[in-house]
Amino acid sequence: MPPRTPYPGGARTPSPVLARTPYRRRLRGPAAAAAALALALGLGAAPAHADPEHPFRDPSLPLQQRVDDLLGRLTLAEKVSWLHQYQPAVERLGIGLFKTGTEALHGVAWSTDADDGGNVVTARGTVFPQAVGLASTWNPGLVKKVGEAVGTEARGYHAENPRVWGLQLWAPVVNLLRDPRWGRNEEGYSEDPLLTGAISTAYGQGIQGDDPGHLRAAPVLKHFAANNNEVRRDTTNSSLRPRVMHEYELPAFRTALASDAATGVMTAYNLVNGRPATVTDLNASVRKWTDRTLFNVSDAGGPNNLTGSQKYFATQAEAAAALVKAGVDSFTVDNTDGRPTVASVDAALAQGLLTEADIDRAVRNILSVRFRLGEFDPDGGPYGKITKEAVDSPEHRKLNRRAATEAAVLLKNSGGTLPLDPAETVAVIGPLADTLYTDWYSGALPYEVTPLDGIKERATVTAGVEGADRIALKAGGRYLTAGTGAGADLKLSSTTPGATEQFDVFDWGQGVVTLRSVANGKYVSRANWSTLVNDRDQPTGWFVQEQFKLEAQDDGTVLLRYAGYETAEPWFGPNVYVRAAEDGTLSLTTAGAATRFTKEVVRSGIDEAVAAARSAGTAVVVVGSMPFINGREAHDRTDLNLAEGQRKLVEAVHAANPNTVVILENSYPATVDRLQESVPAILWTTHAGAETGHALADILYGDANPAGRLAQTWPRAGAKLPDILDYDIIKTRSTYLYSKDRPLYAFGHGLSYTTFGYQGLKARRSGGGFEVSVKVTNTGPRAGDEVVQLYTHQRSSRVEQPVRQLRGFERVHLAPGETKTVTFTLKTADLALWDVTRGRFAVEESAHDVLVGSASDRIRQRTVIQVDGERIPARDLSRVTRAADFDDHSGAELVDETKASGDAVALSAGEWISFADADLGRGASGVRLGVAATEAASVEVRAGSPTGRLLGTVRVPATGDVYRWAEASAPLVRASGRQDVHLVVRGDVRIKDLVLSR
C-alpha cells in the first residue's frame, strides 16, 4: 500500500501521532474546535440517536440475519457510497464512518486522517522486527503472540480515535521473496510458500483473536498476486505458467485463508498473465479457499490505474463494473473523497454494467467483517473494552525483545568467537552502532535501545564511534554553512570550518551518501524542491530527499549531486547538481553549471575506527542498510553488495583487531563474501525495533542462544540472477527450490552456540500419508533451540522437480544432553504436482527422498519412501488443449484471453512453446489453432525440438486486435507416434488453444 498524498514523508518526531508529510493541511479555528468536539463526543463511532431496537444491533441473532437486516435498511445510494475506502456515516441508522486500512506489518504503523484529506499519521507503539525478521524466527507460536499484540494495539488506537485508526489491518504481506532485489523484501516472509503460509497464518490468527464470532482486528493479505518487483509495478506483467501459479504462488495466499487467518486480500498493482490484478477474478480463487465471507480491497489508486497507466478500460464506469464483478468490495482511491467512486459505480448501474444485486453482494461482504468487529454490538463486542493503555505495554516490550532475539541469525562463528566474555573490553563501531532505523511501514519508536546501549549494559565499552568521515565543502574561499537548532538553508558563508561547516558522511552504497550536520545533528535535505536545509532527524519520506552523491572531478574537486528517488522521473530533468550563487544561496542546476567544491576531510572515519578497535579486546562493527534508501516500495535494488565504504570500514577494523564481530543489520540478502572469508563472526538481524540493542546483547553475551534461520537464499557475489520481471522460477532455476548454484548462505541457514545430533530417522505409512520422526539431541554444553527442517525430493517425474522442497519444520528447545523426538505428518496429497495435461493436481508414483536437517544444505538424516500414485498419461492433443498448459517454452508470456477471464500465450518471432510426450497415434492429419494477431504471421509445428522436423505451418491472418480471436489451421505430414510437439512462431502471435485432427 503506497501513500495517499502527493508528497508523503517528513521528519520523525517523538509524538504519539505525527504527520508523515510536511504538506499536511491542519484544521484551525472553529473547524478545529468542531472536530475536537466531535471526537470527544465519540461521533467517530455510532451517532448518539441510534435505535437499539433494530435487529441488526442484537448480538444474539445469527450473523447472517443481522447482515440481512441492516442491508435491507440501506438505500442504494448508501450502499454505493460504502464501496469507497471511507464508508460514510448513515446517521438515520446510528452508523458512524468506517474507514478501511490501518497499516500493521510489524506493529501498528500508520493510517490516514479521515478528517484531513487522507494525509498520513503515524502510530507510536510497539515496533516489532520487520516481517522478514519475524519469519526468520521459524516460530509460528511466537509470531501469533506478536499478532495478538498488534491487534490489541490497533484496538487501543481505535478506542482513542476510531475515525483515524480503522480495525481492518492491511497486513501481512505474503508475496514470496522470489528475487532478493525486490525493493519490498523487508515486508515479505520467505521465498518458500510453506514457511510463508505458516508465518502469515500465525500472524493473522493472532491479530484476529480466538473468539469464534468476533474479530480483535481484521487482517488483509497483501498483495494478490505475484507482486515481487517495483520497477514499473503498475504496468508490468507477472507471467505465471500454471505450475508456478498453482504450486508456488497461490499456496502462499491459500494457507492463511483456508485456515481462517485472514478476512480478505488486497489486490496488487501489477498485471497477472496480462490482466490487471485489480480485476483478476477473486471469486474463482480466494473466495473458494474459505467458508468465511471475505472483504477484499484494491491497493491505493488501483481503480484509477485501470483507465490511467494501464489503459485497460476506456471509462471508469467499465473499470468499476469489472472491479465489483471480480470480487473487489472496496475501492482504495481518491483519498477521503468518495465522489469519483460513487460516480463511476452509478454510471455502471445506469449503463447496465452492474445491478443492485452486484452492489448488495459487495456490501454484504463488507458488513460481514464490520459485524464481526463488534461495531454494531451494544458493548462493542468482546474486544471493545481495550483502551489506549494497551499500547507499548510492559508485556509488549518484553515480547518485542524476545522476537528480536529469536529473529537474529548467526551466519558465522569460527573459533568460538561468540559468545563474548563480559569481562572483555569492547569497542562498538559503525554507522548503525548507535541508531535505530524504521521503515515505510513502521510506527514511530517510543524509545530506543541501540546496539551500543545494549552492549554498554553488559560490558566495558572503550569507544563508541560511527566510523564516518567528517568533511567540509569549500568553494571560492567560503565553506558550505548550515544552521543551528532546527536547521536553516545551507549557503556558502563562513571562511573558517567550524561546527556549522562540518558534515558527517554516511555511505549507503553505489555512491549514495547522507550528510549529517555537525551543527545540530540533523540530516541535510532538499527543501521546497530547490535549496538544501539541515532539518531532518533521519532520512525518510516517499522521495527520500536526504540522498546525495559527492562526484569526484578530474581537477580534484567534487560536485554535490542531489540523488533523491524522484530524480529518476523524466520530468525532473538534469537539474540535480548544487550551484552556489554569488550571495552563497544554493539551487539545483546542471552538471556543467554546478559549483565545484573542495572536500576537506576534518576527521577520517576509518582512522577513528581503527584507533577505537585497538583500544579494546573485541571490536563489534554494526553495518547494514538504511530502509528508506537501500531498496523499498517503488524502488528495487540493483546491487546486493554491502556499501563499499562500510566494507572497507569492517576490513580496516579487522586488520587492527582480529577479534572483530560484525553485526549486519539489514532487510535482505547481501553479498558479503569477503567478510565471510575474513572476519571470525557475523550476526544478522533485520531492523528489529526498539529492543534491538537488548536482543543483540542477549545473543552476543550468551544469555540467548541464537536459533534464527534464514528465510531466503543469500546468493554469492557475482551470481547471475534472472531478469527481475521473469517469474518463471522453474525455467530460470530460481530460489532454493530449483537452483543448483552454491549460495553464500542457503535457505534455512543459521548457527548455534551448541551442537545437535540427529538419529533414527523413520518414515512410516500413516493415514493418507507418512509419519516422519527423528531424534534430535543437544550434544553441546549450552541449552539452545534447533530448527528441525523436513525436505523431500521426488526422484522421477514427468516434469522438472524441485531440488528439494520444505515440507515441515519445528523449532525445539533442548537442554544439554536432552533428546526429543520430532514428528512430522507428511500427507501424500502435499506431494502432488500441477498436471498441465489435465488441469489438476496429481500425485505421481515415485520414490521420494526424505531429508531432515538444520538447513536446506545441511541434511543430517535421510531415507526413502515409495509414494503410491499414478502415471500421468501421454498428452492427447486431439482434445482442445489450452496453449498456456505448455510444458516448456522460450520467451513465452502468459496474457489475457479476454478482459474478463482466460489465459493465452503471446509469442514473438523465434519463440516457442512445447507439449511433451504427445501421443499422435497412427498419425495426426492437421492442426487448428485459436489465434489473434495484429499482423499476419505463421506458426510452425515441429517434432522433437524447436528446430526438429517440420510437421506443418499454420498461416495466421491479421485479426485486427489481440482480443479478436480466429481459427487458423494447416495440414500435418509424418505426424505420428509419441512426440514432443513444438509451436515455433514467425511474427507476433497470441495462441489460446490448439487441437490436432486425426
Automatic annotation (TrEMBL):
Any GO MF annotation of the entry: hydrolase activity
Hydrolase as UniProt keyword: yes
Cited InterPro entries: Actin-crosslinking, BXL, CBM6, Cellulose-bd_IV, Fn3-like, Galactose-bd-like_sf, GH, Glyco_hydro_3_C
Extent of the signal sequence: 1-50
A Pfam family recorded for this sequence: Glyco_hydro_3_C
PROSITE patterns from the UniProt entry: CBM6 (PS51175), TAT (PS51318)
SMART domains reported in the protein's UniProt record: CBD_IV, Fn3_like
SUPFAM superfamilies in the cross-refs: (Trans)glycosidases, Actin-crosslinking proteins, Beta-D-glucan exohydrolase, C-terminal domain, Galactose-binding domain-like
Keywords: Hydrolase, Signal
Keyword Ligase on entry: no
Every CBM6 domain range: 878-997
Family: Belongs to the glycosyl hydrolase 3 family.
PANTHER family: BETA-D-XYLOSIDASE 5-RELATED, SUGAR HYDROLASE-RELATED
Protein name: Glycoside hydrolase family 3 C-terminal domain-containing protein
Organism (species): Planomonospora corallina
Lineage: Bacteria, Bacillati, Actinomycetota, Actinomycetes, Streptosporangiales
